[in-house]
Amino acid sequence: MRSQSNTGWPIPVILNDTFLLAFQRRAHHYIPNPPAENAVLDWLALMQHHGVPTRLMDWTFSPYVALYFALEHSLPDVACAVWAVDSDWVFAEATKILSQHDATFPDVPDIKAFHQYLNKTLSQENPSVVVTANPVMMNERVAAQQGFFLCDLGKTRRFDISLLEMIVSSKPYLPVVWKAVVSPDERIRFFRELGRMNISGESLFRGLDGFARSIRVGLRTDVDSLYEMVGWKIRKAQ
After folding, report:
1. For 33-87, how does the pLDDT look when each residue is reduced to its tens digit (9 = 90+)?
2. What is the pLDDT of residue 13?
């Protein structure tokens, strides 16, 4: 599932390979065990979760985590949305397309074989196809957020267009994409319920930064709740 602070479809950023090289050359100054040089997918996952623009798009297997991220940057008077994609269908359809396109595609594309294939082909010319891209060595944030990635291997790297082309071409019997719009009226209540479930910045971003993030979001929620209460009293008085 994927969160969105408004109801529009999320679009990832194109990664310039220069960013990857620059990150690889200096990451060892900040982390003790960086990925192997040829583990491109692991590098991209690490970059993604530290704020570098990549061709990956963050998703999560948890609808509650997706809801948290949708609400975290939402506005009090604007609806937000949670998107859901059938990842099993994406994997199966991508496997069919890539096996027809590339003779070197593994005959039995388990997660490890698929991972190795992506490491070799991420920088090559590929058909416009969206793939599930899960690093073998998950970093702490991916694990805490129950995360995985989707990636468009095509030249344009427009996730929305490539996924639409896959859907139109395969004509799946059941829907493979859903959108759940969250009303602003439910925003504060959902935040409170997620907090009771221990889904917060502190649990999703381990360390002092996550703790500070929780304080900021909690303060903002309290302020928005107060404004909501004051507005309700004014409307009732009228």
Report:
1. 888 888 888 888 888 878 888 888 889 999 999 999 998 888 888 899 999 999 9
2. 46
* CB-count burial class (<10 Å; 0-12, 13-18, 19+) for 105: middle
* Contacts of 157-162 spanning 24+ positions with Cβ under 8 A: 157/12, 157/14, 157/55, 158/11, 158/128, 159/10, 159/11, 159/12, 159/57, 159/130, 160/9, 160/11, 161/128, 162/128, 162/129, 162/130
Residue type, 62: S
Domain chopping of the chain, boundaries: 2-183
219: region left, alpha or beta (phi > 0 left; psi from -120 to 50 alpha) = alpha
Reference 141, options 26, 56, 16, 17; nearest CA is 56
- Helices 187-196 and 63-72: angle between axes, nearest 10 degrees: 130
Residue with tokens 């929305």: 160
User: Rounded to an integer, what distance in angstroms lies between the CA atom of residue 21 and that of residue 115?
Assistant: 20
The answer to whether 149 and 56 have CB atoms below 8 angstroms apart is yes
What is the side-by-side order of every strand in the sheet holding 80-85?
Answer: 2-4, 80-85, 177-182
Q: pTM score, two decimals?
A: 0.77
